[in-house]
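Could someone model pyridoxal-5'-phosphate with this protein?
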Amino acid sequence: MSVEYVSTRDKSDKVTASQAILKGLAPDGGLYVPTEIPKLDKTFEELAEMDYKQVAYEVMKLMLSDFTEEELKHCITSAYDSKFDTEEIAPMTYADGAYYLELFHGKTIAFKDMALSILPHLMTTAAKKNNIKNEIVILTATSGDTGKAALAGFADVPGTKIIVFFPKDGVSDIQKRQMVTQTGDNTFVVGINGNFDQAQTGVKQMFGDQKLNSELADHGFQFSSANSINIGRLVPQIVYYVYAYTRLLKEGRINSGDKINVTVPTGNFGNILACYYGKQMGLPVDKLICASNENKVLYDFFGTGTYDKNREFHLTSSPSMDILISSNLERLIYRIAGEDDKKDAEFMKELREGGKYTITPEMRKGLADFYGNFADQTETSAEIKRVYDDTGYVIDPHTAVASAVYQKYLKDTGDDKPVVIASTASPYKFTRTVMEAIGQDDKSKTDLELTDDLSRVSGTKIPPAIEEIKSAPVRHKTTCEVAEMPQTVKGFLGI
Ligand SMILES: *Cc1c(COP(=O)(O)O)cnc(C)c1O
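Reply:
Sure, complex below.
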């Protein structure tokens, strides 16, 4: 069976998986979605005997059906190697009644590495398959973690350049340092005077700007996206939910077919959507618990059926979730609208023009798989402390939002099925917030210096990613206004 991809806003035009990966965003501004979601064709018992790379192949072969076995296996082995600090790639820690699925063992110690370590390989393979001669220019807007993970993934990959825009005052010190010290002659990093949504909108506009695109083509370049709107990001994220389930099975914590719940700290709705796709592929997930911080637009959406971004934007201790336009939600909207592209396009037009839309009562029934809630900064901080006091395990603020929301879910429903909490960043990335929460903050120290203290109190080793940036020189100093983003790109490309 061959899965093809169509735009959420116009499903008449079908492309292959490799073409969808190359394009990133569909020409009409929609997101590529699979024409159908295939079922897993191995049993959970069989998958339980496989390692991460093998599970990755079994999942990805179904969704990326125009890649040959050899191509896909090459991409997978190039991605999930010693760049990760554990052979398990995504290990689980049981703490205080929940399984924390640690997705932060890659190069940049956040879950974005799970997909961004393979995307460059998928993309260069896709370019070869489609006889693309242009150099690929990756444009990325980041709320903090994507940027560094994309830079690390694409640095010095032949035939590519990568340009990352981040909100100058909207990321943590360590996140910023990680980006501005990035090596690689093909890497460019820009701080914008604006927030993440403005960075993301600016990038989307450049993708849709025909004049800019043809100027690029004249100079042998073409844009692509490493943002989670790219299906090459989404598909590798399905893998770790399947992997987590089959590890629980292997360890005898569940029986095959038992349902589990999954809690995901959510911003752009990519990670949780991957789990939703996993469920459609046959993974026995019951509730998808969608955790937001104070930017709780999704919580309100699940509660009311109205998505409304017209509200105050909060900078929080979980910056990678400081998002008011959750791009990947469009893929869910398309699906619960019965794959009605016209309806989807209308909602997105309303969102663009008025900042909100309301789905139909019929569509709301499609949200039954989801439970939404949020945790404010006080609750998030209290959750870091609670888990630490009870178990000695230190979680980062994003994971803590998920963990706190899971506690609310338990209280609300009493549903205590085994739960996997997506643990999306290492606490070493957010030392100030974490040390403050557990009451061991030393104000005289910088965020970086606090990594030694964190190592002491948590009994864990400082990850190599942190050791590296301690001494690395700053290589990127460009800043710009939102309106200057296209000009900045052209400047980098010399056109
Ligand atoms: C990106 C990110 C999230 C949000 O994931 P989405 O796929 O955008 O919903 C959560 N936590 C961390 C640490 C992240 O980097």
